[in-house]
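Re: weekly structure request thread

Next one in the queue (91 aa):
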Amino acid sequence: MTRAGFSAAGKSILEQIWAELDNIMDLLMPEMKNPDSSISIAYRNQAFGLAKAIAIIQNPYRPDTDAVRSEAMERWMGRNGKGRKVRKSIK
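Done, posted below.
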């Protein structure tokens, strides 16, 4: 049996959603050269949905999707040598 919110592999649901958002950001950012393409729009929609889920999990009473989107961009920049490094711990 696992603790509430944790998978059998040990990562929390929140960590898993952040990992998925990181993956989508890695796919999205190269596509932003053509922001009106159907691929770019699809990735942006996926990223928004994941950011919304993270915001709700972190604070269900006042979800701050913009803060999560900003963090996702900072994480992408850190992975691509354009900003700060990704934090090891997740809020």
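The chain has three helices and no strands. The helical segments are 13-31, 38-58, 65-79.
Next request, please.
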